Amino acid sequence: MNLFRAHFDTRHFEFEGYGNTEEQAREVCYAGWLEHCKSYNPNAEVDPDYVSKDDIAVYAIQMGKAYRDREAI
Asked: CA–CA separation, 1 vs 63, rounded Å?
């Protein structure tokens, strides 16, 4: 069984989202980004267009396997 991890970095944070499919993981990660944009610091201007769904990397994780630098050992 696979789990999918979506992720991207900004200057200050690393964002992640997990799902049963690549698309679900990407959607969860992007939704987290949009929530961050709305709630992180109301006085700071955070541009939601800074990250698009195409900027989010996704890879599969197999349950029961060990990984080093995102590669199975």
From this structure: 6
